[in-house]
Fold this sequence. Notes:
Largest sheet: none
Shape: globular
Oligomer: single chain
Low-confidence stretches: 105-111
Amino acid sequence: MTAYNYITVSDLEDFTGTDYSAVDSDYTDTVIGAKISNAERIVNSICRDDFSGTIPDGVKAATIQIAANLMHNQLVNDGYAENRIKAFDKSIEAILEDSKASNNISVDSVI
């Protein structure tokens, strides 16, 4: 369970192609859910909104990409993956801007 339920642990594992519990038994749904909750909060702060009901596809897409990066950083910190230098680029903002156009979401530039 995550703070806002925009995506699930299964959604994240499907997106990344990684079964996190197979990598390390300490990567429980609770641990991964905490990373997803952080991603949801980042999306909420970018959009200046928290979403309920039907979650816009752009919000889901941004959440899953941010959560994937947070989990990758965890894998790097724990020695399971190599660091990849990747700046937070405009792709997240573009996803949310597209969602804004179709769902009336307020998105401020954060980059």
